[in-house]
Amino acid sequence: MKKKYIVSFFLMLLPVVLANAKAIHVCIDSIGYNLIRESGTAEVTSSGYKYKGDIIIPESVTYQGVEYSVTSIGDAFFYCDKMTSVSIPNTVTNICGSAFSYCSGLSEIIIPNSVTSIGDNAFMDCTGLTSLTIPESVTSIGGYVFANCTGLTSVTIPSSLTIISDHAFYGCTALTSVSIPNGITSIEWDAFANCTGLVSVSIPNSVTNIGSWAFYGCSSLSSIDLPSNITFMGAGSFKDCISLTSVEIPFGLTSLECYVFDSCTNLISVVIPNSITTIHSRAFWKCSSLASVEIPNSVTTIDDQAFGFCSSLVTLIIGKNVSDMFSQVFCHSSKLTHVYCYAENVPKAGSEGFYQSNIANATLHVPEASIGSYRNTEPWRSFGKIEPLGEGTGLNGIQSDGVRIQAVGGVLAIEGAVEGTPVIVYDTTGRLLASAMTTKQAARIATSLRKGAVAIVKVGDRVEKVVMK
Q1: Which own/partner pairs from 394-402 qualify as long-range (CB within 8 Å, at least 24 positions apart)?
Q2: 465, β-bridge pairs
Q3: Under a CB-based contact definition with an 8 Å cutoff, are residues 132 and 152 in contact?
Q4: Whole-angstrom Cα distance, residue 124 to residue 111?
Q5: What pLDDT does residue 254 have?
Q6: Which residues share a beta bridge with 41?
């Protein structure tokens, strides 16, 4: 019985022994290698001490008369903070995880076009790195690959990638602009989070997914053009983008996830498309510059505190199919003056739906046939006035030659214009208020004009006067 146990134990160890036998660890010219006999290849590894200064990796090494091609870099340079530069040969195809992590003294690196993959954390915390070009040969990059490279001011992303991995550029605070090439389909979780210096980012039409917290904390990001093919934006994807002033959400999205624009404190204009059915919790929480919001007819559910603490909100338009509004959905909107609700069936809102929003001094406009139901239902009954929707109410504007101009709550909505038509808005003194270009034959422009003021709207060659409602 004892011999049987010894034999079994030896058989268990045999695969490990054979696996180790395939790789020989050697040090040649002060660089460590794992030599793989069967393939005749070598992986750069630790040499037993931290590498310093300028390192040149050869294309091949010879050991005991056998030449090995250097094809991979393992975690050889992890925490080599005294290393200043490294030369990678054209034979290398794989840069493994943590290969150069915490190399704070590394100021430049050229990745050859032989490399096809870069692993997790490969260049994480390389704080001295200022610019980087990822070659077109690279088809995959790992998570945290360039995270916390706080000195990185420019990066070239290849079109050979399809995914920008999670946390790929997290905390790259010196990065000011990013151009994402056509071919990328997904920007993963936290990919550009806390890139506080990022002012602009170009997202191509190939992108269909923006992961949770992807641009969270990009406090300098002032504008974002969301491509029309996006089908999902994750929770908190633009949270705390405090410089963002306007956003047009693309048609095709069916839900706005939790915290998606939470605390975008300078957001003054948002266009919600008629494809959205659900607005989740705190989607626009503390968007304190939003003066007006139009919730389209496609929306059926608005989750708790979705528009909480929108302290500048004056005018609110609620589409006709909203049926459920959860706790404190429009709480702490103390400037709320007019609410236009087109739902004939009174939406369920709970007694705190408009908590601390001073609705006793606001007017609720509803379908005439439903006034009685609203007057008997909380929190709607608490409005100071409840009036029927009429021809002069809400988004009614002017229409000519197929172009419709609507005005409410300081926001002008232009529909039916030719794609790319310039729209310019003046007040009656001739002062320029805002300008935009139509996309998908429409434009949404936020102004500072109050109810009753007149806007001069130039759409292409046509000029119209519009009374703000």
Answers
A1: 394/317, 394/340, 394/342, 394/365, 394/469, 395/294, 395/317, 395/340, 395/469, 396/469, 397/466, 397/469, 398/464, 398/466, 400/462, 400/464, 401/462
A2: 456
A3: yes
A4: 15
A5: 96
A6: 36, 69
pLDDT score, position 415: 82
Residue 117, token pair as written in the block: 């993959």
Question: What pTM was computed for the model?
Answer: 0.80
- Among left, alpha and beta (phi > 0; psi -120 to 50; other), residue 205 is alpha
> Would you put residue 69 in left (φ > 0), alpha (ψ -120 to 50) or beta?
beta
3-class DSSP state for residue 321? coil
Judge whether 152 and 145 are in contact, CB under 8 Å.
no
Bridge partner list, 110: 87
Q: Residues with Cβ < 8 Å from 395, sequence gap 6 or more?
A: 294, 317, 340, 406, 407, 408, 413, 469
Write out the H or E segment, with its range, that includes residue 3: helix 2-22
Tokens of 413: 């909505």
C-alpha–C-alpha distance, residues 118 and 141, integer Å: 5
CA distance 21 to 13: 12
CA angle 19, 21, 23 (to 5 degrees): 85
Q: Which residues of the chain have pLDDT under 70?
A: 1-21, 390-402, 409, 428-432, 452
Residues 6 or more apart in contact with residue 392 via CB below 8 angstroms:
469
As a whole number of angstroms, the distance between CA 436 and CA 426 comes to: 12
Instruction: Work out whether the CA dihedral 198, 200, 204, 208 comes out positive or negative.
Output: positive
Q: Which amino acid is at 29?
A: D
The residue whose two tokens read 């080599």 is: 80
**Of 436, 439, 446, 435, the residue nearest 417 (C-alpha):** 439
By the 8 A CB rule, do 110 and 132 touch? Answer: no
Which letter does DSSP use for residue 433 in this model?
E
CA 341, CA 346: separation in Å to the nearest integer? Answer: 9
pLDDT of amino acid 391: 41
CA distance 359 to 335: 9
Task: Provide the 10 A C-beta neighbour count for residue 164.
Answer: 23
Number of residues that make up the chain: 469
Reduced to 3 states (helix: H, G, I; strand: E, B; else coil), residue 200 is: strand
Q: Are 122 and 96 in contact (CB under 8 A)?
A: yes
If you compute the radius of gyration of the chain from its CA atoms, what whole number of angstroms results? 30
Q: Is 56 helix (H, G, I), strand (E, B) or coil?
A: strand
Tokens of 273: 């498309």
Element spanning 424, H or E? strand 422-426
- pLDDT of res. 18: 35
